[in-house]
């Protein structure tokens, strides 16, 4: 895992196993932005199959302020933008995802995300 820490942010290719902390120990309004990058058409098909339910479940989570996953011009790459009200709701989301069908089906798909808090 590749990380960059400081000022409540880090970069990683796998957010399922990340820990982070602000300089003041408190994080509110967590923002995630980046890409879900498939390596082949089979992975892209898995994303297309499991994504609608993943979006529905995530948007229903307590603390989810916004959640958008949109296909880019590249048919194997999705733009991901998330906002959660605080670090606790973001961690709860990450935990749910890790244990979900989506998490299991897409665990080997590359993720390049930046996460920031305000």
| N- to C-terminal distance | 24 Å
Number of strand elements: 5
Reading the helices and strands in chain order gives EEHEEHHE
Q: From the helix content, strand content and strand pairing, which structural class follows?
A: alpha+beta
- Range of helix content: 25-40%
The CATH architecture category of one domain equals 2-Layer Sandwich
Tell me the number of helical segments per DSSP (H or I, 4 or more residues long).
3
How would a textbook summarize the main sheet?
A: 5 strands, antiparallel
What overall geometry do the principal axes of the alpha carbons give?
globular
What is the CATH class of one domain?
Alpha Beta
Q: What is the fold named in CATH at topology level of one domain?
A: Alpha-Beta Plaits
Return the average pLDDT rounded to an integer: 84
Strand order of the largest sheet: 1-5-2-4-3
Strand content: 25-35%
**Unreliable stretches, pLDDT < 50, 5 or more residues?**
1-24
Q: What is the alpha-carbon Rg in Å?
A: 14 Å
